[in-house]
TrEMBL record:
One Pfam family, short name: NB-ARC
Ranges of Polar residues composition bias in the record: 1-10
Segments forming domain NB-ARC: 91-249
Organism: Actinopolyspora xinjiangensis
Bias type Basic and acidic residues, positions: 589-599
InterPro entries the UniProt entry points to: NB-ARC, P-loop_NTPase
Sequence segments annotated as region (Disordered): 1-58, 569-599
Name under which the protein is recorded: NB-ARC domain-containing protein
GO molecular function terms listed in the Swiss-Prot or TrEMBL record: ADP binding
Top-level taxon of origin: Bacteria
C-alpha cells in the first residue's frame, strides 16, 4: 500500500480510527518483534504483579485523542541538507505495508535533530493527527530511559489521562497501537540509546512516520524496515552561510580566506559553526583570523585526548568556554551538576549564587556563547555541551564543590516540592524536616492546580533527583521527596514513578532507622497498588507498617496504616483478609489520619 503524499488536513480523527476497538485491536501484532521485559528496561513488579483487574481498551474509557504539536523550536538558520531531504522524501514515497522508520545516526553536533525537524515541518500537512516528540537521552548510557516511560509520555500526549495510563508495559503497548491505528502521525525519538527504547514506539499505521536520532547505529531497527542515514558534514559554502547569518555578509566577505579556514576547522559540524559564530558575534572587533588561530591551537591541545567523532565541535565548545568571564564559567560548571541539564529559571538563578544584574550578565554571556539554550521558563544544554561542562567541572572543581552544588540542586527541589505539597494538601501531618520552616510561608502558587502543574513540569527532574540521591546514598532527600510528592501522585496518578520512587524511599527510611517515615511511605505506596487493584502487592507492602510507628510512638500513623490494611482486605481476596486477621497488635483509639484525606 502506498503512503499518501498529502492526507486530509482537517485534523479530525475518523471515528473508525479510535472506536469501536474490539479485543482484536488490543492484541500485539505478530508481524514485528514484540519488546521483551529485558528490552524495555522496565522494573519488574514482583508484589502481586498478576493480581490486577484487566484494563479496558482506550475507546472503552472515553479517551478523546489530541492532536499534539511537540517538535522543538526551529534553529535561527538552516542551510544545506538538500540531498538528505530528497532521500527522506524518496523513502516516504515508496510503497509499504508499515509505518516509515528513518534512523539518523552520527556524532554529536552534526545536526541530526535539526534535519529531522526540518523535514517534519516541511511536510507537516502529511501528519494531520499530530507530531509527537520524546527525548530518550539520559545522563548515563548504563541506565537508559525505559521504553515504558517513553510510551507513557506518548500516551499522555495523545490524550490519555495520567490516571488511565496502564502500569504494565504490554498494556501500554496495546493502548499505543490502538490510539495510533489508522492515523497519520509523526513520532520523533531524539537521542535514542538503544533499539529497545525505540521499537515499541512504532505507530500502527502505514501513513505514519517514526524518526529516530542516535549517536549509535541502531542495527536492530533493520527488523522494522528502517532506513538509515548519517547526515554528511556541511561543506565550506554552507558553513560560510551560517557564519554570514550570524556575523553579517560584509564581515565575512572581508575575510573570505579566513572564513574558509574556519569552515575547515569546524569539520562541517553545524554546532561548531554556530558556536564559533556566537563567539565572534560577542567580539565584534576580533577578526576571523584570530578565531581560526584560536581554534587551531585548541585542536592541537585536544589532540592528546582520545579521538572522537565530535572532535571539531568539542574544540569549538572549549574555545567558547575559555572565553567566558569567571562568573559565567563558574555558573556553566554549576549548572552542569543538574542530573538532566534541563533547569527551570528559578533554579538557574538559585545556582548562580549572585544577585541582580551580575546573575543576568552571567546567564546572558552563556546564552550569547550558545553554551546554554533558553526560553522564558527554562534553560537547557545541548547534550554535547553538557558533556563538556561536566568534564570541565571534573577538571576544575573539587569533589566537595561538586557535591555541594548537587546538594543545592536537591535541596532546592525538596523545598519547592514541600511548598507545592502544602498548597495541594495543607492540613495533613508531615515528618520531613523542611516542613516546619515553610508551613507559614505565603503560597507561591495561585491554588492546588497550579502547584500540581509545577509537579507535572518537573516530574522528570524530580525522578532524576531521587535516583541521583539514591546512587549517592543520600537517604534523607530520597524519602523526603517521596513524602512531598504524595499529593501529586494521588491526584495525577503517575503510577510507575509513584511505585519506583517509593520503593527507593522505603529502602532509604529503613537504612536511616526512621520508622515513622518508613510507615508513611508504605501507606502511600499501598494506595498506588489499591488504585491498581493489585491487592496482594498492597498487603505485602503495608503489612510491615503497623509495627514500625510503635518505635516512634505515633499512634495516629498506626491507626492510618491499619485502616489501609482493612481497606485492602475488604477489596481483595480471602488470602488478603486472612493476612489482616493474622496480624496482632493494639489499635489505638485515635482518629484516623490518612494520606488520602489530605487533612
Amino acid at each position: 500500500m502506498p503512503r499518501s503524499v498529502e492526507t486530509s488536513v482537517t485534523g479530525d480523527v475518523p471515528a473508525a480510527d479510535i472506536a469501536p476497538h474490539d479485543a482484536a485491536n488490543n492484541t500485539v501484532r505478530t508481524d514485528r518483534p514484540t519488546a521483551t521485559p529485558a528490552e524495555t528496561s522496565e522494573p519488574v513488579i514482583h508484589e502481586g504483579g498478576g493480581g490486577g483487574a484487566p484494563r479496558l481498551a482506550p475507546s472503552r474509557v472515553g479517551i478523546v485523542p489530541l492532536t499534539p504539536h511537540q517538535l522543538p523550536p526551529p534553529p535561527e538558520s538552516f542551510v544545506g541538507r538538500v540531498s538528505e531531504l530528497n532521500r527522506m522524501e524518496a523513502w516516504h514515497r515508496e510503497e509499504s505495508e508499515r509505518a516509515l522508520v528513518i534512523a539518523l545516526t552520527g556524532p554529536g553536533g552534526i545536526g541530526k535533530t535539526t534535519l529531522a525537524c526540518q523535514w517534519l515541518r516541511q511536510y507537516e500537512r502529511r501528519f494531520p493527527h499530530g507530531q509527537l516528540y520524546v527525548d530518550a537521552g539520559t545522563r548515563s548510557a548504563e541506565h537508559p530511559i525505559a521504553a515504558a516511560e517513553l510510551l507513557g509520555r506518548l500516551l499522555r500526549a495523545l490524550g490519555v489521562p495520567a490516571e488511565r495510563v496502564p502500569l504494565e508495559m504490554s498494556e501500554r503497548l496495546s493502548w499505543y497501537r490502538s490510539l495510533t491505528a489508522g492515523r497519520s502521525l509523526s513520532v520523533l525519538v531524539d537521542n535514542a540509546v538503544s533499539t529497545a527504547q525505540v521499537r515499541p514506539l512504532l505507530p500502527d499505521s502505514t501513513t505514519s512516520t517514526l524518526l529516530v536520532t542516535s549517536r549509535s547505529h541502531l542495527v536492530g531497527l533493520t527488523m522494522e524496515g528502517a532506513r538509515f542515514m548519517e547526515p554528511a558534514p556541511l561543506n565550506a559554502e554552507e558553513v560560510i552561510q551560517l557564519l554570514s547569518h550570524k556575523l553579517g555578509r560584509s564581515r565575512v566577505l572581508r575575510e573570505m580566506g579566513n572564513a574558509r579556514l574556519l569552515a575547515k576547522l569546524c569539520g562541517g559540524s553545524p554546532l561548531a559553526a554556530t558556536e564559533i559564530s556566537a563567539w565572534l558575534a560577542a567580539r565584534p572587533h576580533r577578526s576571523l583570523a584570530h578565531a581560526a588561530n584560536q581554534l587551531r591551537e585548541q585542536r592541537q591541545r585536544l589532540a592528546t585526548l582520545p579521538p572522537s567523532d565530535d572532535f571539531s565541535a568539542r574544540s569549538v565548545v572549549d574555545i567558547c568556554y575559555r572565553g567566558l568571564s569567571s562568573p559565567a564559567a563558574t555558573l556553566y560548571r554549576r549548572l552542569a551538576q543538574h542530573p538532566r541539564g534541563d533547569l527551570p529559571v528559578e533554579l538557574t538563578r538559585h545556582l548562580a549564587g549572585i544577585e541582580g544584574s551580575d546573575c543576568e550578565r552571567a546567564l546572558a554571556e552563556l546564552r550569547d556563547a550558545r553554551l546554554l539554550e533558553a526560553d522564558p521558563e527554562r534553560y537547557w544544554f545541548h547534550d554535547l555541551v553538557l558533556a563538556h561542562a561536566r568534564t570541565m567541572s571534573l577538571v576544575e572543581d573539587s569533589p566537595p564543590t561538586r557535591r555541594r552544588t548537587l546538594h543545592s540542586v536537591i535541596d532546592w527541589y525538596i523545598g519547592r516540592a514541600v511548598e507545592a505539597d502544602l498548597v495541594v494538601t495543607p492540613r495533613r501531618p508531615r515528618f520531613g524536616q523542611h516542613y516546619p520552616h515553610r508551613s507559614n510561608d505565603w503560597p507561591v502558587w495561585d491554588g492546588p492546580e497550579a502547584a500540581l502543574d509545577w509537579f507535572e513540569r518537573e516530574r522528570g527532574n524530580l525522578r532524576a533527583v531521587i535516583i541521583e540521591a539514591h546512587h549517592n546514598q543520600w537517604d534523607e532527600p530520597v524519602w523526603q521527596l517521596c513524602e512531598a510528592m504524595w499529593g501529586f501522585f494521588f491526584h495525577r496518578k503517575h503510577y510507575r514513578d509513584w511505585i519506583d520512587s517509593h520503593r527507593l524511599g522505603i529502602e532509604a527510611a529503613s537504612r536511616l532507622g526512621h520508622p515513622l517515615a518508613e510507615s508513611r511511605l508504605r501507606c502511600q505506596l499501598a494506595f498506588a497498588y489499591l488504585d491498581l487493584e493489585h491487592f496482594e502487592a498492597a498487603m505485602d507492602v503495608c503489612l510491615p507498617a503497623p509495627r514500625l510507628p510503635e518505635a516512634g510512638g505515633d499512634s495516629a500513623e498506626l491507626a492510618a496504616t491499619l485502616s489501609e490494611l482493612t481497606s485492602a482486605a475488604r477489596r481483595g481476596n480471602d488470602e488478603s483478609a486472612r493476612k489482616v486477621v493474622r496480624f496482632s497488635g493494639p489499635v489505638p483509639p485515635r482518629e484516623r489520619v490518612s494520606p488520602r484525606s489530605g487533612g
